[in-house]
């Protein structure tokens, strides 16, 4: 029997071999906290070990958000060392998704911001509902992405556009995300899960070994950039010693504009 998860829904269709994992914190717009990240890691580990699971759809509960970001109240309590460890742990777990030999499709049903955008980018393909919005708004909090966002965004949309999106914290609508190559397809909200499962079903009709080796081979191209993840984790941790981080998170929680000083 599959394990149950406090923050996820885990639904395997035995006939098709397609597992649907749903981040299930609708009252928090499915924001990522440490418990959710651990649940995601456990769910994907379980899926890799289950021969009945042949492909995975990852989505969020409700129609407003895939994952609207990290849990800012939880982040605000971290120090430099804890923040770096949290970044490294998030990178490790999201890396498991990227390195899966079973294809993973993100069905993005609304906001995919911060850690949510990073989670979607860790998946092999992204299908966006027409109401989806993507972004890395961490600089608004005096932060940088910590779960691989600085690396995967550049890989997907190119260095120049990635830097623009990271530094402006601009949100990208679904049609623009498609143009940039951040997503594979845009579909109406009502068709999102069916489309994602149909795409997986087409892939699952191919040779499983060859599919897994294709994924492994593409990922191998980016191994030379692995040090970038270490740099990101170190930078993420350093932000937690800054006055700007304290001001950014306090302003967010107090629902007011931040006044940054550069310290």
TrEMBL record:
Transmembrane stretches, start-end: none
Keyword Protein biosynthesis attributed? no
Keywords, comma-separated and alphabetical: Isomerase, Lyase
Which SUPFAM superfamilies does the record cross-reference, listed alphabetically?
A: ClpP/crotonase (SSF52096)
Q: Which GO terms describe its molecular function?
A: isomerase activity; lyase activity
Q: Tell me, which GO biological process terms does this entry list?
A: fatty acid beta-oxidation
Name the source's superkingdom: Bacteria
Q: Which residues form a coiled coil?
A: none
Q: Name one Pfam family in it.
A: ECH_1
The family note in this entry says: Belongs to the enoyl-CoA hydratase/isomerase family.
Which protein are we looking at? Answer: Enoyl-CoA hydratase/isomerase family protein
